[in-house]
Amino acid sequence: MMLIGGQWIREGSGGVFPVRDPATEEFFAEVPRATEQEVDRACKAAAEAFPSWSKSLPAERAKVLLKAAEELEQKTDEIARILTKEQGKPIKEAKGEVRGAVQALRFFAHHADFSIGELRAPNRAGTVNLVKYYPVGPVAVISPWNYPVLLTAWKVAPALAAGCTVVIKPSSKTPLAVTEFVRCLLEGGAPAGVVNLIHGSGDVGMALVRHTSIRKITFTGETETGKIIMREAAGGIKRLTLELGGHCPLIVAADADLDAAVEGGVYRAFRNMGQVCNSVNRIYVERPVYKEFLQMFIERTKKLTIGPGIEDPDLGPMIDDEARKRVMFHIHDAVSKGATVIYGGKIPPGFEKGFFFEPTVLINVDHSMIVMREETFGPVAPIMAVDSLDEAIKWANDSRYGLVAYLYTRDIGKALRAAEKLEYGTVGINNVVGGEVEYPYAGWKESGLGFELSEHAIFEFLQVKHIRIYWR
Questions:
Q1: Residue 265 and residue 245: Cα distance in Å, rounded?
Q2: Which residues are the active-site residues?
Q3: Which of 30, 59, 85, 202 is the most buried (most CB within 10 A)?
Q4: d(Cα 250, Cα 357) in Å, to the nearest integer?
Q5: DSSP line for 310-323
Q6: How does pLDDT run across 324-334, given as a tens digit for each residue?
Q7: Per-residue pLDDT for 360 more than 80?
Q8: How distant, in Å, are the alpha carbons of 55, 70, 98, 110, 434 from that of 105?
């Protein structure tokens, strides 16, 4: 269903579209499809609700977020099953995603008072300077299919905490779990029009971006789509937060703890079938430990289990056949240019139905290959030997992306020097955790604009006013 102005809508003027289970390829649900008509109604509802919501006390907004978090937490298992059914990920990961959304709601509830303002010290006698923050206006929230609940929460929670109203458009591939997330916001006490939900494909998203009532757009998705949104938003000088492509490197120094590096590398390369913006997309290993790391990496990869997400394997299916074909194309391109598939590289036996693919390890790779330059968004780990840490950093930075980089080394001085040189918004040293709610998550270069997470993310949804008073 869609939600517009506090009313649930079962039918859209664009008819309906089906939702498919990627583990079976079967269509199991239908969702109403919006057109510009529903986009207009949703945006106007958000605009009408904005004056009262923007003037509500931070404590009142926090109360709604905290109650919504409670509702969401109680429905973790139910929503996780829906998420696994439509997205494919293992059920334990789906539960973890819902728990992450609960955490985001609670975190931003406790930081809603960041939107109040401050009294600044005078720069000359006889003056008082107030700096006040105001919600920017109705926000378009366009969220992706790989972490639909979590990444919607990352956007909606700070927007609501700041006093903005929202129109949410989830991916047409994963609309169901987000619908339940929105239901929790409504049950948490969000007033009519503060939270709106519409469904559809890219044309609906573009209509939302263009709508004159929208003053801010927050989007997670492909870099090329982000560029289109930037061009469309320019006409209205609209504020943007864009979290785009990753293509993240992992560097393994000669002095690294190889057990930890392998465990982290396999986890981050193949989790959610590599369909994560901060997945390890390429691995650079110093030559003295290259062979040992490679052998350990392959042995660990062989232990990964594959199956329908509801059976809770290590790896579920990919989202659809288009995503799987992209993976196969990247592998074919690499092999045609001299790479070797040392493990995986095909559809696993017994999984002719569903969009399954083996975790794949490539060697003899170089930067002439697409897999080393562009985001595969699939379970492929190309591993390249390098002669020094400086060479690894050079290759890591040889990218138009700059979201997250990872480095394993026992030398903290070496680690910190490398972190300074790596052109990425997040650098994980001896860990592969990218994107925690307490810390800013920013993409450099073509990986994004603005940032998400941390209490400072609320400022992405605020505009500032300086009030200068001369009193004598």
A1: 19
A2: 243, 277
A3: 85
A4: 22
A5: GG--SB---S-HHH
A6: 999 999 999 99
A7: yes
A8: 20, 9, 11, 9, 19
Does position 387 have pLDDT exceeding 80, yes or no?
A: yes
Pairing between β-strand 441-442 and β-strand 404-408 as defined by DSSP bridges: unpaired
- Delineate the domains of the chain, giving CATH numbers in brackets: 2-244+447-470 (3.40.605.10), 248-436 (3.40.309.10)
**Six token digits for residue 329:** 């194309």
461 has pLDDT over 90: yes
- CA separation for the pair 324, 345 (Å, rounded): 11
pLDDT digits (tens, 9 = 90+) for 389-403: 999 999 999 999 999
pTM higher than 0.85: yes
Burial letters 334-363, b for 16+ CB under 10 A, else e: bbeeebebbbbbeeeeebeebbbbbbbbbb
Q: Dig out the tokens for 410 from the structure.
A: 């026992």
What region, left, alpha or beta, does residue 259 occupy, with left being phi > 0 and alpha being psi -120 to 50 degrees? alpha
- Tokens 């993409």 map to which residue? 443
Q: Which amino acid is at 220?
A: T
Query: What is residue 162's predicted lDDT score, i.e. its pLDDT?
Result: 97
Could you identify the residue written with the tokens 């010290």? 121
Classify the C-alpha dihedral 454-457-459-462 as positive or negative: negative
The amino acid sitting at 155 is K
Q: Pairing relation of β-strands 16-21 and 26-32?
A: antiparallel
Q: Measured between alpha carbons, how far is residue 470 from residues 123, 130, 132, 252, 466 in Å? A: 11, 12, 17, 59, 13
Which pair of structure tokens corresponds to residue 263? 């465990």
Chain segment 198-232, per-residue pLDDT in tens:
999 999 999 999 999 999 999 999 999 999 999 99
pLDDT 10s digits, 368-379: 999 999 999 999
